[in-house]
Amino acid sequence: MKHRLDFEKPILELQSKLEELREHPEKHSLGISFEEEIQIIEKKIEETRRQIFLNLTPWQRVQLARHPRRPYTLDYFETTFTDFQELHGDRLFAEDRAMVGGFARLAGHHVLVIGTQKGRDTKENILRNFGSAHPEGYRKALRLMQLANKFGLPIITLIDTAGAYPGVGAEERHISEAIAVNLREMTLLEVPIITAVIGEGGSGGALGIGVADRVLILENAYYSVISPEGCAAILWKDRANAAKAAAALRITAKDLLELKLVDEIVPEPLGGAHTDPAAIAATLKTHLVKHLEEILALPVSERLKQRYAKFRAHGHFVEKTENAAEMKPAKSVEPVAA
Fold first, then answer.
1. Using the 8-state DSSP alphabet, how is residue 241 labeled?
2. Bridge partners of 155?
């Protein structure tokens, strides 16, 4: 089977054995019926799958977040949402295909949806720049969000990017400034904003469309200031230590919920979102509708106050002294876009 990950090898071996047995029933074990042996193997496959996917390491979850068959932003725009109508251009420089957005419906609510989009093959990845937006992508996103704010439409953003594009052209057109402006302006928009990290949530490239009233994350997605490989290259001078870096960064959905950097984890089908795209689309829809209706019930002033307080609270830490029993009060640092 295509796109199998290393830790899925035991499942693949059992499935191959099952397929071989079905093709050559004469090879089944003596003293047991063919149907019974099939049931035994199927049960073992299910038990093995459950054991593997309920005990994934942080690095294994990163691999799932990057799975090439995982649903991407446009897939959700066509399944979780209905009547999606894409809008283009930043009205300043160009159209960025790595950032997509437009009007849609969510269970009867008119909304604006925005997200980063990867490609399925080499040709599409070149078109989408591997999901890494240029400055014009963030300026397009801001243009659309301001349009939604003008017409009183809630905003929903989907994040799936390794980060903003770090090339020379992006720097020449001020990628840092584009992201910084989005951070500032998103804190002031009066309409509800919900963000969902559906795959990779890389650094400022993710945060540039991630300032929201509620931040959701799929069970096997991750959200981090730097990729595990980048962290490993800096700390251990070797990208081969990416698995160690993934654990140290605490970038999994469970860790982020404990750190209060996200508001809720959206459960995925056993085996990952790519194993049942229809199921994860329906699950995400349920969670988005629930949070949207809760936020819509808040007065605008209270909504803005809570949004501001939410991001001001990020970055608390505790200092340990030589005497482990003595702990200094928690300090707060300002959130910074990487």
1. G
2. 112, 193
Are 292 and 106 within 8 A, CB to CB?
yes
Domain boundaries of the chain, sorted by first residue: 11-55, 62-312
Contact residues for 65 (Cβ-Cβ < 8 A; gap 6+): 199, 200, 220, 221, 222
Q: Report whether pLDDT(161) > 50.
A: yes
Q: Is the pTM of this model over 0.85?
A: yes
DSSP classification of residue 312: H
Amino acid 256 reads L
Sequence-separated (6 or more) residues with CB below 8 Å from residue 327: 318, 319, 320, 321
> What was the pLDDT predicted at 143?
97
Higher pLDDT, 96 or 322: 96
**Does the structure show a pLDDT above 50 at 84?**
yes
Q: Per-residue pLDDT averaged across 73-90, rounded?
A: 96
Structure tokens at 65: 């977040």
Q: 190-229: b or e for each residue (b if 16 or more CB lie within 10 Å)?
A: ebbbbbbbbbbbbbbbbbbbbbbbbbbbbbbbbbbbbbbb
Per the CB < 8 A criterion, the answer to whether 266 and 218 are in contact is: yes
Its CATH class, for the domain covering 62-312, is alpha beta
